[in-house]
Amino acid sequence: MTTAYHRKKDPEAVREKLLSAAESLALSQGLQAVTMQAVADAAGVTKGGFLHHFPSKEALFQTLFAAYVRRLEAVLDRLMQQDPTPYGRFSRAYLRAALEPAIVEAASLSGGIVSAFNGDPDLRRMWYDWLTAQEQRHIETDGAAILQIVRRAADGLWFASQDGAVLGPGDALLPDLLALTAPPKTQERTRGTP
Questions:
Q1: Integer Cα distance of 80 and 85 in angstroms
Q2: Comparing 7-11, 43-47, 103-107, 109-113, which segment has the lowest mean pLDDT?
Q3: CATH of 9-55, one of 3.40.50, 1.10.287, 1.10.10, 3.30.70
């Protein structure tokens, strides 16, 4: 009988370590740095261990993307539930999830990972497909052109802030962008008010 020590297997913990390592590499060095070997090394597992969980780098990227989207959707749903005004509810949640530092940090919603995905056409398509589906889902409350413009402004600020290209913090514009999501009659009453 052998007395060798056998480590208890915890495949879910290994998978999470691999995802965390991949996200860290993508954020710090870009998507091109996310190789199977680099992720395995950073997670402290063998390349075979990597391949057990992810048969390809593309499978890892898709899983990483899906995990990010799940976090974002949970935040959006929570913010929308807290918002009593139906008109613009999704847009306000989207703005806050993109630009409010406390929310971004608490939910690990760095736009940097989406920026990293931007370099991959398949992942970029997945992002736009997700966003289009969300916009269709909320078209009754958030279909107005001004709300789409506001969401695109948030995207631009979000991505630019990840690249250090924003002259000031995007959250400084958040109150003005949120004001644009108010029901039209409310906007008319507040226009011109400092």
A1: 9
A2: 109-113
A3: 1.10.10
